[in-house]
Design goal:
Layout: E1 7-13, E2 16-27, E3 36-38, E4 50-59, H1 61-68, E5 76-79, H2 83-99, E6 104-105, E7 108-115, H3 119-131, E8 138-143, E9 147-153, E10 156-160, E11 165-176, H4 187-204, E12 208-220, E13 223-234, H5 240-247, E14 255-256, H6 258-261, E15 279-283, E16 289-293, E17 297-301, E18 304-310, H7 319-337
Antiparallel strand pairs: 1-2, 1-8, 2-4, 3-4, 3-15, 5-7, 6-14, 7-18, 8-9, 9-17, 10-11, 10-16, 11-13, 12-13, 15-16, 17-18
Helix pairs in contact: 1-3
């Protein structure tokens, strides 16, 4: 069967895709009897973030690639991001950190471009890339005839396997792949990742019993990150919205401590960041859920495309080093998507 003109997909486990086929019915809440995809903006201001598909099925990346055929990613005419705009955001965050009690915040930079292809070619070409991407990540996408988002995220916001069992991940700290052995001992990167762990533990502890795993290095194409698995056994069953609001945004994409910087969240990126860093997930009728953090993606409307990345700032951060990290991350996303 051909790729639907409107739909969504999410890789919920290695080799297992959930695909929704349009038309997609947008709603403020999920119909409890239907599978739906949750696709809000980063600030959770979208009044209809749930998309109910006309039909859905599970498949594998290999099977979907057969449907896509020999699609290739479209070409893009990129425009360099505004370094001065990022420098202003950097300065504002560092001033807040120096004055305390803010410890960490994650401003983002956006790079814009123009597609040189039709919408059909955009979706098929990008999907084939993320479905065959190496490394531990979750392919995800939502698209229509005029707009969409496609990416592959290594970061889970939460996975709910039963009424009381929830898993999440604290991921932060970035080095080029060739410096992977240096990452676990780097003071700046380990402190940044520890802030994310502390933030998630603080958010989940009121909900139940939290177990924190060991810190590991995750290897992705061209980059490595620090990652800690975290699990919680809930005292009481929590609904989807409660888990989203408890966790999003973690300090990996937002601020830490949350009480010191909630007012900063709207200023961490341009308004057109859209869904960059937002939750993206599916909830089944039986209450199981799988939600990733929407990073390592591109978003588009018509022929205009946006690629966004962020880097965590703490007291030790320096503008030149952060700008270099952002360039590394943008190059990694372009490599991932073949752009």
């Amino acid at each position: 069967m051909p790729l639907p003109a409107e739909g969504f997909l999410l890789e919920v486990a290695p080799g297992r895709l959930v695909v929704g086929e349009g038309p997609l019915e947008a709603s403020s809440t999920r119909d409890p009897g239907r599978l739906a995809c949750y696709v809000p903006d980063f600030l959770l201001t979208d009044t209809a973030p749930w998309l109910h598909p006309a039909a859905w099925h599970e498949t594998t990346p290999e099977e979907l690639c057969e449907v896509l055929g020999p699609a290739t990613p479209p070409a893009v005419d990129w425009r360099e991001p505004d370094a001065a705009d990022y420098a202003q955001r950097f300065a504002a965050v560092m001033q807040r950190i120096r004055s305390g009690p803010l410890v960490k915040a994650v401003p983002v930079v956006l790079e814009h471009g123009t597609w040189r292809a039709s919408p059909d070619a955009v979706v098929a070409g990008l999907l084939r890339r993320v479905l065959t991407a190496p490394g531990p990540s979750h392919a995800y996408a939502v698209w229509s005839a005029s707009a969409g988002m496609v990416g592959a995220s290594p970061e889970i916001l939460f996975a709910r396997h039963g009424p009381h069992q929830v898993e999440t991940v604290a991921m932060a700290g970035t080095f080029p792949e060739e410096r992977a052995t240096d990452l676990p001992d780097d003071p700046k990167e380990t402190r940044e990742q520890a802030a994310v762990v502390d933030d998630i533990v603080a958010a989940l502890t009121p909900l139940g019993s939290v177990v924190v795993g060991t810190r590991d290095v995750v290897r992705l194409p061209t980059m490595v990150h620090l990652k800690t698995d975290i699990a919680v056994t809930l005292n009481n069953a929590a609904d989807f919205a409660s888990l989203v609001h408890a966790l999003h945004p973690t300090a990996a994409l937002g601020v830490a401590p949350r009480s010191a910087g909630q007012d900063l969240l709207p200023t961490l990126g341009p308004a057109e960041r859209g869904r960059l860093g937002a939750p993206f997930g599916v909830e089944w009728p039986d209450g199981r859920a799988h939600v990733i953090v929407a990073i390592r993606n591109v978003q588009w409307t018509g022929d205009q495309v946006t690629l966004g990345v962020g880097a965590g700032l703490i007291a030790e951060s320096r503008l030149e080093r952060e700008w270099t990290e952002l360039q590394l991350k943008r190059a990694a996303v372009k490599g991932l998507l073949g752009l």
